[in-house]
Specification:
two-stranded antiparallel sheet, 19 helices, alpha/beta
């Protein structure tokens, strides 16, 4: 048995040139993958074109493998950990070459038998496992990105007073400085951007009522203003159904009275996509496609009306939610909009684990962004135990999918629980961002920290502003010697969106 690794380490690349017959007849026929692995170990990352161009007599190792119908022996995930780009380039080059030459097309069936996407995912899974074996969960070693949730689905005014000013009916949600109109939101985003935020998350609000609604023109105007004034900032829009969104959908459905059964489900799902999913058409960088309501989409319980008729076209019907979810994800993928997963209860992970097994059916695709919002509900309490449990589940999702995933972490600080002043220690039952920021400051698993009026309308006894909350977080992290990443190109690279930068900025112009 020939020890290919010893051969590779003892001899320079020139040995191949002088011993081609030996190499081909004794190793390459049955042992090519080990040759590649040994060479990579000796030379680190290689370019396969450089590796093969010395074999002019045989044209290339790639051609040799293809014409002996052994191409599949090369596509073993463990051979390409850390070097996925090389093998994907190899695949694209030779597939195009053999497709172009008529007399060689019989060999192209080998390429069709290789599921390159599945292969790539398996390689990324192995890469992730290797990374987590050595990942240090101690003091943070990488910079943090700041994100800002500006408007939210609940916080803020709901009606006008006699002087025309908007006020909230429920005082517990009141946020005095919440931006509502497109002009206000753009100005507010600029302040947050200047303070250090590089991802802006925005819910559309009806300028007349203050309530959340779905309005494509509103989203487009805001996106255009942010692109122009906040260079390189990532923009995230939601698909929330709160506020007036449900009423908007019901109004559209009034054109289809008494339609039930399959037709009713189809129409209901289409209206959900048209209204609730309207934000995707504005083409933001990310779209929140999965939230708490989506935990119902894998259910199997039918919804009945008073007469006992099943499958009433109600938006919570699992069949309707499945149809809606698939369509929104498919549209987002087509437009190049990344999917965002908002975690507000641990129960969402059970559904996500099942979706990971059916990712193609539901059009799940990376890069993907997870937003962990501690304290949003009793299902995701603001404590370290829940924080660790949630990150473990995100790690599991990464392993199951092989997706490029970034993680943001934030916390909902309700006014009644907010600390009265920034003391060194928090009284029992009171919170502010400091406790979560300390966890994040020591944890490389978190890529970004989220603040904003959506989560925290009041802090230290005072009404807050989005820019002020970003500044507060920035100063806190800097005091802990955690660097804030504000370079737009580096931020986009971390989020796996650097390839979209040119088209996005040119679109803004």
């Amino acid at each position: 048995m020939i020890d290919t690794e010893v051969i590779m380490k003892k001899h320079s690349f020139d040995m191949f040139e002088h011993n081609k017959d030996f190499i081909y007849h004794n190793i390459i026929h049955d042992n090519f993958p080990k040759v590649v692995e040994a060479y990579r170990n000796a030379k680190q990352k290689i370019s396969l074109s450089d590796f093969t161009r010395h074999y002019s007599e045989y044209q290339s190792i790639g051609q040799l493998l293809i014409e002996r119908e052994k191409l599949g022996t090369l596509f073993k995930p463990d051979l390409w950990v850390g070097n996925l780009e090389t093998i994907t380039q190899f695949y694209a080059h030779f597939k195009e070459r053999y497709t172009r030459q008529k007399h060689m097309r019989d060999y192209t069936k080998q390429f069709d038998e290789i599921d390159l996407e599945a292969f790539s995912r398996e390689v990324r899974k192995l890469e992730y496992k290797e990374k987590t074996k050595t990942e240090d969960k101690g003091p943070r070693t990488k910079p943090i990105i700041l994100t800002c949730a500006h408007t939210g689905a609940l916080n803020g005014p709901w009606k006008k007073d006699q002087e025309g000013r908007l006020h909230n009916i429920e005082e517990r949600y009141f946020a005095e400085h919440l931006p509502i109109t497109p002009e206000q939101v753009i100005k507010d985003a600029i302040k947050a951007y200047n303070a250090g935020a590089r991802l802006i998350h925005i819910h559309a609000r009806n300028p007349e009522t203050g309530a959340q609604y779905a309005n494509l023109s509103w989203y487009k105007e805001v996106l255009k203003g942010i692109r122009k004034n906040c260079p390189g900032a990532l923009v995230s829009f939601p698909t929330s159904r709160k506020g007036e969104v449900g009423t908007q959908i019901d109004t559209k459905l009034s054109d289809f009275p008494n339609v039930k059964g399959r037709a009713g489900r189809t129409i209901r799902a289409a209206m959900e996509v048209l209204i609730r999913g309207a934000a995707v058409e504005a083409r933001p960088d990310t779209l929140t496609t999965f939230t708490v309501p989506e935990t119902r989409l894998l259910g199997d319980k039918s919804i009945k009306d008073k007469r006992g008729v099943e499958d009433v076209p109600n938006w919570t019907s699992p069949s309707i939610m499945r149809s809606y979810f698939k369509q929104v994800n498919e549209r987002a993928n087509k437009l190049g909009v990344r999917q965002e997963i908002e975690i507000t209860t641990m129960g969402e992970f059970d559904v996500l684990d099942e979706l990971a097994k059916r990712d193609k059916e539901f059009h799940l695709k990376g890069p993907m962004h997870f937003v962990l919002i501690l304290g949003f509900s009793d299902g995701l309490k603001l404590n370290k135990k829940t924080y660790e449990a949630a990150l473990d589940r995100i790690d599991k999702f990464k392993q199951n999918t092989g997706f490029h995933i970034t993680v943001s972490c934030g916390a909902v600080i309700r006014p009644k629980e907010a600390a009265g002043k920034p003391e060194a220690e928090l009284p029992a039952g009171q919170h502010d961002y400091r406790e979560v920021m300390r966890w994040v400051a020591a944890d490389d698993r978190i890529d970004a920290f989220r603040v904003g009026l959506e989560d925290t309308p009041k802090l230290y006894g005072n009404q807050q502003t989005n820019g002020g909350l970003v500044e507060e977080a920035r100063k806190f992290f800097e005091d802990l010697d955690v660097r804030i990443e504000m370079n737009p190109k580096k931020v986009r690279k971390i989020f796996g969106m650097e390839k979209r930068e040119v088209s996005r900025e040119s679109q803004a112009r």
